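Exercise (ungraded).
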Amino acid sequence: MTQRMKLWNFFQMESQSLKPAFGPAVHVDQMGDAPSVIVVCEHASNRVPAHLDGLGLKDETLTRHIAWDPGALPVAQGLSQQLGAVLVHGGISRLVYDCNRPPDAPDAIPERSEVFEIPGNTALSDAARDARIAQVYRPFSSMLTEQIGVHRAHLRMMVTVHSFTPIFRDQMRAVQIGILHGDDDRLAQAMMQSIPADLDMNVQLNEPYSAADGVAHTLNRHAVPYGLPNVMIEIRNDLIESTAQQANIAQVLAHWVTTAEAAMSERNNM
Ligand SMILES: [Zn+2]
């Protein structure tokens, strides 16, 4: 090995140790040739990169809803398949960085989530915070921008898929599915109208959260500037535990989304 190569290898090793490997922060699955829908699942994964040492939490804690949205990814995949959509999903736990929050949001890297302190997030140095933004948020956000650019000609809407815990601070939540909107409420309103009146399910607008809780970041940042109708769907996670439940909910949602889209384009053509 020449002296120069040795030096090069040394620098490579150095730069790798200075920039710890977060692994993939974002994944893209394209389910159709010319997708008319972009589906986004920010909280798909509970993976914590090895160098962050589980953020000081027990493995069991990292399987809980504070680390990710259990069941959301299989539902997002099923929905995307039904719609022939392009799906963009996160590859890192929201406790490392919540990709549905801008870098200046206090809960983008939460020091506390529900009743849990997150030791690995307390007293973070500026450099550690910048690394999370650069290695998790930026690649996720850039991929969304890229995919919207690539599919701009045929995209008609954005749908984000999330799940929430049935019991929050000891209270049982009655709402089963939440239809949420940000600055543009067209698709959310059309979906609420497309839901059959005799449906045996508790579906609510802007429940159990709303834009006031800061959850509309992806919608407002990535769909609204393009005039792309958009909606955030929150599913109570006890309804999407089994593969059969996930497939069933995906089918129900696909029907609501397509019915709402048809109603909206009919209105536009009148
Ligand atoms: Zn979520």
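Further reading is listed at the end of the chapter. For now, observe: Residues 43, 69, 162 surround zinc ion (CB under 6 Å). Confidence is low (pLDDT under 50) at residues 5-17.
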